[in-house]
Design goal:
The chain has seven helices and twelve strands. It is an alpha/beta fold and 281 residues long. The chain folds into two domains: 136 residues, 3-Layer(aba) Sandwich (Rossmann fold), CATH 3.40.50; 66 residues, no CATH class. A six-stranded mixed β-sheet has the order 8-9-10-5-11-12, sandwiched between helices. Strands 4-3-6-7 form a four-stranded antiparallel β-sheet, covered by helices on one side. About 5% of the residues have low confidence. Bound molecules: adenosine-5'-triphosphate (ATP) and magnesium ion (MG). Adenosine-5'-triphosphate (ATP) binds next to helix 1.
């Protein structure tokens, strides 16, 4: 597969084979979010502190309404925390940030533009035309849409549109890729293929990834660490979700879906999410 960032190989013996990219670390420091209107205040998130290493994939799991998307939006600079802050590398996120890119559950492509033109929208503004053309065609190849460059979004399947959306997010070689249930609307088989594609892309271009998902298997397939948002048992009196549990996934990618190696983690995560009981935030 084409490498997206043309990563260079570090030839020192300790680092041999490891690719270097412009991946950046992300730090959440005591992040909280309370939504207020004239009559009430609703604390959704509280006291979230988490450091994500450069090139790490972290999956964010939690019951519906726990605040996963809110946390991702804060990281993307699309929303502001009520307390605490998020930093990418050493710089605080204070608004939409060029160092990160987001893809959502819906592809959000412009229906009147071709897939190529939609992907081009993700490029930095000043990109010269010829560079842009080359880059778009490289990205379309990475997401296996080379033959559909001129198609409109309505002329392709949901999975293909989602791949174009991923290519658009990757276009400016983000230091941090923020994914909010990017495969949530896809059928099961397409979803598995998309997961493999992300693993493949990350192997070639190991950017930092924060992935929101409802799917325990998806989290275990992709992530280095799985963060469960919720309310720890001893803190049930406090409003808002926080980090309930962090699970390390020790197996290297790509992971064999038929392996039973991760079965115990699957069980633990499902229990953590209260499957079988009434799951609450
Ligand atoms: N702009 C907003 N104004 C008021 N409340 C909001 C706003 N955005 C989110 N919320 C509330 O914050 C809570 C968390 O929402 P969020 O979308 O982050 O949850 P989620 O974990 O992503 O849920 P899901 O898994 O269903 O996508 C919800 O109760 C939601 O109503
Ligand atoms: Mg959400």
């Amino acid at each position: 597969m084409t490498a997206l960032l043309t990563p260079t190989e570090d030839t020192s013996s300790a680092q041999k084979g490891k690719k270097t990219t412009n991946a950046l670390p992300v730090t959440f420091t005591s992040v909280g979010r309370t939504f207020t209107d004239r009559r009430s205040a609703h604390t959704v998130l509280r006291d979230i502190s988490l450091s994500i290493d450069s090139g790490e994939i972290v999956a964010l799991l939690g019951a519906s309404g726990c605040g996963k998307s809110t946390l991702l939006r804060i990281a993307a600079g699309l929303d502001s925390p009520s307390t605490g802050h998020v930093s990418i590398a050493d710089k605080r996120v204070t608004g939409i940030d060029e160092r990160s890119a987001v893809a959502f559950q819906e592809s959000r492509l412009l229906p009147w533009r071709s897939l190529a033109a939609n992907v081009a929208l993700g490029l930095p503004r000043q990109t010269p035309k010829t560079t842009a053309k080359e880059r778009v065609s490289e990205l379309l190849e990475v997401v296996r849409l080379k033959d559909f460059a001129d198609h409109r979004p309505r002329e392709v399947s949901g999975g293909m549109a989602q791949r174009a959306s991923l290519a658009r997010a990757l276009a400016r070689t983000p230091g941090v890729l923020l994914l909010d249930e990017p495969f949530g609307a896809l059928d099961a088989l397409t979803r598995l293929r998309m997961q493999d594609l992300v693993v493949d892309i990350h192997e070639n271009t190991p950017t930092t990834v924060l992935l929101v998902t409802h799917d325990v298997d998806e989290a275990l397939q992709l992530a280095d660490r799985v963060v469960v948002l919720g309310t720890p048992e001893h803190e049930t009196q406090q409003p808002g979700a926080t980090i309930q549990r962090i699970v390390n996934v020790p197996t290297p990618r790509p992971r064999d879906r038929s392996s039973t190696e991760l079965a115990h983690l699957r069980g633990e995560l499902l229990a953590e999410l209260g499957v079988g009981e009434a799951a609450t935030c």
